[in-house]
Amino acid sequence: MLLSRYLLPVMKETPADAQIVSHQLMLRAGLIRQTAAGIYAWLPLGLRVLENIARIVRREQDRAGAIELLMPTIQPADLWRQSGRYDAYGPEMLRFRDRHDREMLYGPTNEEMITALFRDCVKSYRDLPRTLYHIQWKFRDEVRPRFGVMRGREFLMKDAYSFDLDEEGGRASYDAQFTAYLRTFAALGLRAVPVRAPTGPIGGDLSHEFHILADTGESEVYYDAALDDVDLADPDAPARLRGLYAMEAEEHAKVTDCPVPADRLASRRGIEVGHIFFFGTKYSETMGLQVQAKDGSQLTPLMGSYGIGVSRLMGAIIEAGHDQQGIIWPDSVAPFDVGLINLRPDDAGCAAAAAGMQEKLEAAGRSVLHDDRDARPGEKFATMDLIGLPWQLTLGPKGLAAGTVELKRRATGEKHELSPESALARILG
Ligand code: 5CA
């Protein structure tokens, strides 16, 4: 991609209305633009990151055996009357009427819709267990939308729903999602702490929130410092993490006999990037979902629901990975793999060399943002640091005459003068 033909509106100054660093950097790096309070347009660079995050979420859901479908954003109010949540949900739900005066809403979540779909499609125990998921926009009319995509009104969520024949199966489905969540966050370069959570209006008796520890997090988490030592790559990590104490401040305050010795009790702020619930027959019961059991009787399936804040994750990744100069993307979600800086696009030799490097990188499957603009070197370097691509490859007339280009790793700042071939080999290695 040539930067001279791209849409990348970067800003030098920190926008006054953005309070936390991820929000500031998302605006400055040209990832998003606010179009109304808590509602954002995803600019080309931001969309690439969002899609990369969604791809990893999808990969781990598929790996855990969940099946993807896509439900609409708009839902009929009647569906929510069946579960009794239409009135209970309150002003966070965006309600409206269509031209036939039918009451509609923009979905804040999809328990009702998936339960109705499953009720219509599945009649027999043979079709269970199943876990279904989608990645779809949600709307919640938050009282205080803030911190950019962290607490938006319109946001992208992965929500999965499990259907099981018995309690044991339901807990196994819950465990599969729990493990998928740890894998997902690790693949995004994040360390997530599973926090035992109250179930709130969703109901049920088993729930965890997943928090990324960061000073700008909206909640405070008390946890056993032994959690910091768990190796996420260890196959026993999910079991170990679940055995260790972690609670949000409000819940922690209610605990009379904290199981963690005082010297091991740590407290940090956290960003909630995921939330999972096992709530048994709450929705299947109220919405009349039954299947025929093996013995011919009617059975009410047990359900769980599992959310990941896909758009919020982008903010969390930036909170966890940035420096004074800008964003430092993990390789797995970076909008482009390589930022190619041509210092002298007006020089025919430089232009030919840069085009050649772009072509070789792209042929090898790497995405390249090629800065071919007629701009000062300082501006080009500042833009590349700001947008945080993992590799920066710079070439100019002096280096080329000496047979070298400069390769910089954004995360470490490490720079090397290399032959073009070695630089390519290093990136592709
Ligand atoms: N029905 C359940 C599970 S599918 C549910 O909706 N859970 S939730 O309310 O906890 O939302 C799931 C995740 O969506 C949260 O963990 C959070 O990461 C994200 N999320 C929730 N509200 C917002 C918001 N206003 N802006 C951005 N992300 C949000």
Explain what you see.
With 429 residues, the chain is α+β, with helices and mostly antiparallel strands. The protein has two domains: 7-323, BirA Bifunctional Protein, domain 2; 338-428, Anticodon-binding domain (Rossmann fold), CATH 3.40.50.800. The protein is built from 14 helices and 23 strands. The strands form six sheets. Strands 3, 7, 8, 9, 10, 11, 12, 13 and 16 form a nine-stranded mixed sheet that branches. Strands 20-19-21-22-23 form a five-stranded mixed sheet, sandwiched between helices. α1 (21-28) crosses α10 (310-320). The chain starts with 20 loop residues before the first helix and ends with a helix. The model has no long low-confidence stretch (mean pLDDT 96). Bound molecules: 5'-O-(N-(L-cysteinyl)-sulfamoyl)adenosine. 5'-O-(N-(L-cysteinyl)-sulfamoyl)adenosine (5CA) binds next to β8, β13, β16 and α10.
Indicate the mean pLDDT: 96
Strand proportion, as a percent range, falls in: 25-35%
Fourth-tier CATH superfamily name of the largest domain: Bira Bifunctional Protein, Domain 2
Largest sheet: 9 strands, mixed
CATH C-level class of the largest domain: Alpha Beta
- Oligomer designation: single chain
> What is the count of distinct domains?
2
Which distinct ligands sit in these coordinates?
Answer: 5'-O-(N-(L-cysteinyl)-sulfamoyl)adenosine
What class, by secondary structure content? Answer: alpha+beta
Judging by the overall fold, what is the CATH architecture of the largest domain? 2-Layer Sandwich
DSSP E strands, number: 23
User: Judging from the principal axes of the Cα atoms, what is the shape?
Assistant: globular
